[in-house]
From TrEMBL:
Substrate binds at H158, D188, G259, N260, S261. GO terms for biological process: proteolysis. Its EC number is 3.4.21.107. Residues 30-68, 392-425 are annotated as: Disordered. Keywords: Hydrolase, Periplasm, Protease, Repeat, Serine protease, Signal, Stress response. Pfam families: PDZ_2, Trypsin_2. This is Probable periplasmic serine endoprotease DegP-like. It is found in: Periplasm.
């Protein structure tokens, strides 16, 4: 997927001060919205809460063959009581006054000029010039929705991150303080809780995997602090990835603006299929490209936050990369799908017998299409669970039983070591590269672990296939054809074997600053 420019990618939250709307103004807008829902609808919402039933169950789906609903009014009236406005308050330090402005040395003519005009504080050393600013209270606005009658509320993590106080304003105008139960910055999800004497109207999650491109959706929230607002659109795309490891966004053209962050995206059945999170915009306003984190991701995170107050994702313990068409050809695979294992450090996968060079094609009975699908599948699996993992090897498929660890416990940098002026052993040109054998002295000079073997890339012909594949001086080739390479003769033998087998490419494993990666290098006869 094409990477979206961070210059135009904005979270859909808002500071009240930035839109010229104070908190009082937001409250007036909220008061005006209460007339949008009839007393009868409010009563039905409360009765559903008393019976612990989610709102929206009586939503009428569009008739067969109907292009679009006649109106969204009935749906809005049913689910609106579960949508909330969120106001957060935090004490923030003001930047140094005068920061970024001109700096004048003491005794300069400008220093005297400030004094002559009665502004001694603006001179060097004055509290108004380069001095620390006083802390101030900052208010921010966002949206959320109730998911249980006992007061659990879902919103975005960035809405409440760093907040000292969180206030929830319900559709009825009631305001209650909220506490943070847990957050997950990786998916930008936060779970809040309020204490209410009466059961609260709530909505339920739907299956985001059932959403199709072109389906009608409804976004509710508090855009720009204006109070409750509804906008409609369609699902423009699915499975969008922005910047996170677990990203699975629904793209929609329903208007999402600052302040909509954390608000729900409904399908026509009144189910939440997404949490409005970000927009792509050159000017900060909606241009019809909004992103909602898919409900299947959010609901899994929320369940863990409810149970543990934190996420507990499964951990397989491998480094992986996508299988490219030329890599598939080099391996003799029928299709370029699956996840190629580039390294197996100590962990669950290694204990189960997984090896570098394995291609994971199935995880816990589900097909693995690429690395992204594998990461999500593993993260959704609970720690301690034993799952079947099918790997493709040169001798055929093999099923391994892996007992998953916990990702949060295992995460931590292993600090790959760089190269600094390695010694240059005798070298030979091969496949567009000048290669040298790694000796103990070379390994020491390069900062490689003791016992490292392989070939070091000394030079790369800029017009070669190796350069096009991204190989660079300092890279270390440790495997070729899924067999260890300790000398140039080993590499030559692997090249000959690939040619004799009629393969166009040879799969090589390189390490750059400790990080492994497979590449397929063309081996056509010279």
């Amino acid at each position: 997927m094409k990477t979206l420019s961070p210059r135009y990618l904005l979270t859909a939250s808002a500071l009240a001060v930035t839109v010229g709307l104070g908190i009082a103004g937001a409250q007036e807008a909220q008061q005006a919205q209460q007339d949008d829902v009839s007393p009868e609808a409010s009563q039905r919402a409360q009765e559903a809460a008393n019976n612990n039933e989610p709102l929206g169950q009586s939503a009428e789906p569009a008739a067969p063959g109907q292009v679009m609903p006649d109106s969204f009014a009935n749906l809005v009236e049913q689910v609106a009581p579960a949508v909330v406005n969120i106001t957060t308050t935090a004490v923030v330090s003001q930047p140094t006054r005068g920061e970024g402005g001109p700096m004048f040395p003491e005794g300069s003519p400008f220093s005297d000029l400030f004094r002559d005009f009665g502004m001694p504080d603006m001179g060097p050393g004055g509290p108004g010039f380069g001095g620390p600013g006083m802390p101030q209270r900052s208010n921010a606005l966002g949206s959320g929705f109730v998911i249980s009658a006992d007061g659990f509320i879902v919103t975005n993590n960035h809405v409440i991150d760093g907040a000292d106080e969180i206030e929830i304003e319900f559709y009825s105008g009631t305001k209650l303080p909220a506490e943070v139960i847990g957050t997950d910055p990786n998916t930008d999800v936060a779970l809040l809780k309020v204490k209410s004497d009466d059961p609260l109207p709530f909505v339920q999650f739907g299956d985001s995997d059932d959403a199709r491109v072109g389906d009608w959706v409804l976004a509710l929230g508090n855009p720009l602090g204006q109070g409750f607002s509804a906008s409609s659109g369609i699902v423009s795309a699915r499975n969008r990835e922005l910047s996170g490891t677990y990203d699975d966004y629904l793209q929609t053209d329903a208007a999402i603006n600052r302040g909509n962050s954390g608000g729900p995206l409904f399908n026509l059945n009144g189910e939440v299929i997404g949490v409005n999170t970000a927009i792509l915009s050159p000017n900060g306003g909606s241009i019809g490209i909004g992103f909602s984190m898919a409900s299947n991701v959010v609901s899994s995170v929320v369940n863990q936050l409810q149970e543990f107050g934190e996420t507990r994702r499964g951990w397989l313990g491998v480094k992986i990369q996508d299988v490219t068409p030329d890599m598939a050809e080099a391996l003799g695979l029928a299709a370029n799908s699956g996840a190629m294992v580039t390294d197996v450090p100590d962990g669950p996968a290694k204990d189960a017998g997984m090896r570098s060079g394995d291609v994971i094609t199935s995880f816990d009975g589900n097909e693995v299409k690429d690395t992204r699908s594998l990461v999500r599948r593993v993260a959704e699996a609970p720690e301690g669970e034993t799952v079947e993992v099918v790997v493709q090897r040169t001798e055929g498929p093999e099923t391994l039983e892996v007992t998953l660890g916990r990702r949060e416990t295992a995460e931590g940098g292993d600090g790959g070591q760089g190269t600094e002026g390695p010694a240059q052993p005798s070298a030979e040109e091969l496949l567009g590269m000048k290669l040298g054998q790694i000796t103990p002295e070379v390994a020491s000079d390069m900062g490689l672990p003791n016992g490292t073997t392989g070939l070091v890339v000394q030079e790369v012909n800029p017009e070669s296939d190796a350069a096009e594949k991204g190989l660079a001086p300092g890279d270390v080739i440790t495997e070729a054809g899924q067999q260890p390479v300790t000398s140039i003769d080993d590499l030559k033998a692997r090249i000959d074997e690939a040619r004799e087998a009629g393969r166009k490419s040879l799969l090589v494993l390189i390490r750059r600053e400790g990080e492994p990666r497979f590449l397929a290098l063309p081996v056509a006869d010279s």
